[in-house]
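Hi everyone, sorry if this is the wrong subforum. Our group has a chain we'd like a structural model of before ordering constructs, and none of us has done structure prediction before. Sequence below.
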Amino acid sequence: MAACWPLSAALAAPSTYRYDTTHSQIVFSIDHNGFSRPFGRLHIAKGWLRFDPDDWSQSATELDIDLASLDMGDAAWNEAVLKPAFLDVEKARYAHFVSTSVERKDDTHGVLHGNLMLRGVTKPVDLPFTFNRMGTTIYGLHTMAGFSATAMLQRDDFGMTSNANSIGHSVSVWLELEAVQDDHINTTKESQ
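Answer:
Right subforum, don't worry. Here is the predicted structure as tokens:
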């Protein structure tokens, strides 16, 4: 999904990137008794991106989300959400996303199709995204690619059915992703 611009289309090829886990974040929101939609935050543990700005069909990504990094703004609330009724971190600490295809809509918008494994359950997920920009950092040290994406998940699909009358079932998700070009990243399944 989410390199120097090629000199010509003939030389174009996907470049590989590793996610900058400091500047990449996942934020989510879910209804609480109809009173509010509080936010939580999760961190990306690791992941890679293959991206060709000229041919998005050659793009792919894979990433692990560290569920134990959950921050709901309150330690007791974090602990409750990490228990088996919800994220069940002791059973599966990481959520894993693997892309299956990229659908380009225009020069900056597309949809990333893939599979999300959460709590041992794998479901297809579509992520509408914006390609923000590609370029070098302010000091010219790294080539970066940046993306913003959204998703809507149903917690029941992943076996989280507890507190059905007080906690919403639809989870809004926002992803802000920065990736650093790194042509030494191994993107084969065996490396994951």
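For your construct planning: Residues 1-11 have pLDDT under 50 and may be disordered. Residues 75-82 form the longest helix (8 residues).
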